[in-house]
Amino acid sequence: MGQIHLELFATLDLVGQAPGGPDEDPGGGFAFGGWQAPLMSEEGGAQVQASYAGTDALLLGRRTYDIFAAHWPLQTGPFAELFNAVPKYVASRRDPELTWAGSTLLGPDLPAAVREVRARHEVVKVVGSLDLVQTLLREKLFDELHLWLHPITLGTGKKVFADGTVPSTLRLLDPPAATPAGSVLLRYGLVEGIPATGDMTAG
After folding, report:
1. pLDDT tens-place string over residues 29-65
2. Which of 25, 31, 102, 142 is such that its CA lies 20 to 30 A from the CA of 1?
3. Longest Cα pair distance anywhere in the chain, in angstroms?
């Protein structure tokens, strides 16, 4: 069985909405679309590229899919080559037109469909797709969470951990890697079971 990795860009207050551009997701009147762009650097780009080593499938929500499908087929370079070549699996409650080569719409039983995708591939990347991420967090249908924290707070916008979050324990896989702009990559692996509790006043 393969692995599912959640690739999430977030602010310090864990807003993950529309990091890439102003038109990415203006839902709820979000006015900070593109907040990640001023913080990107050559080092940060190299970190992101390295994190995709071994990826052989993408798992996307419909909004992210539409953005990617309009962009990546027209691009060149390592990311374009990877994203255009691997299978793309799309989670949607509707019946969208999937124009990007190699795209497949997942069935209505999303957890079952995602398990089939994980069994079929080695490394499946979930990029953005915050609504989809909530389902995967709730079902614990992921193996690693790659959280790219950026040194800003917005106070508004969709959060990385929202309604889908359930009690979970994770372990840090690597020492945090920071960019010159102060963005930090935190790579966590999911651990079985729920968080333990204790009493720090005892003894």
Report:
1. 999 999 999 998 888 888 888 889 899 999 999 999 9
2. 102
3. 64
Between CA 134 and CA 24 the distance in angstroms is 18
Question: Which pLDDT value is given to residue 50?
Answer: 87
What are the tens digits of pLDDT across the range 72-127?
A: 999 999 889 999 999 999 999 888 889 999 999 999 999 999 999 999 999 999 99
Q: Is residue 49 one of the residues assigned to a domain?
A: yes
User: Would residue 194 count as lying in a domain?
Assistant: no
- Residue 202: pLDDT over 80: no
Contact 91, 119 (CB under 8 A): no
Q: Model's pTM, two decimal places?
A: 0.93
Which CATH number characterizes residue 89's domain? 3.40.430.10
DSSP class of residue 34?
Answer: T
Q: Give the integer Cα–Cα distance in Å for 169 and 192.
A: 7
CA 40/CA 183 separation, integer angstroms: 9
How many structural domains is the chain composed of? 1
Say if CB 164 and CB 137 are below 8 A apart: yes
Domain that holds residue 146: 3-155
pLDDT of residue 48: 84
